[in-house]
Amino acid sequence: MSIHSTILIVEDDPLIGKFMSRAVEDAGFRCMIAETAKDCRILFFSEMPDLVLLDLGLPDDDGLNLLKEMKDVRESIPVIIVSARERENEKVKALDMGADDYVTKPFGIFELMARIRTALRHSNRAASQTLSDEDAVFQHKGLTMDISKHQVRLNGEEIHLTGKEFRILELLFRHKGKVLTYSWLMQQIWGDFIPADNQILRVNMANIRRKLKENIEEPVYIKTELGVGYRMPEEE
Ligand code: CA
Prior knowledge:
By secondary structure, this protein is α/β, with parallel strands linked by helices. It is built from 8 helices and 12 strands. Calcium ion (CA) is lined by residues 12-13, 55, 57-58.
């Protein structure tokens, strides 16, 4: 899938743009760079990229406006936010507006490529619609989750999760590699009755982690993305 995918890099810092384009091309993707919002609009509509790397701080417009415009036209386009540390709040906003993931500057090539592969894989899978598959069996290291049997096993031993805990773990599995924001998870689990703060989600997560015998220092199944949400890491 990767070889013929085209990636649009929207970044006004030429050094960072160069760094990203080299990494992306070395991995076999086609790539284009837009240094302004204006160029992004032109390239997005004329070239139909398969994925967009979007810097939020651009000289001529706010990247969030671009995100909204691109998602309005093509909801399925994967967009990865390339965020500066001083724009942390916007990062969460962008994720809640439909961005697929983010990297924070400075980031390494490995991290960037992992995010790109995950986002492309999820968009391909969403396109083929196997994501909602009811009888899925998921596996990550020693952890197995059988959706139709409503069963979770850790190293062969069954563990008991509450309904909400099961649903949270299922979402993490279904979106493996991708960051899930607090508000997205809350919306998915509690729907219209969203509690006012994240406390209940944190409590559920703490219980899941305890049952999965997670080492908080080095979690294997559920990583905390500070101030953003949670992610089940890709296997190396
Ligand atoms: Ca910038």
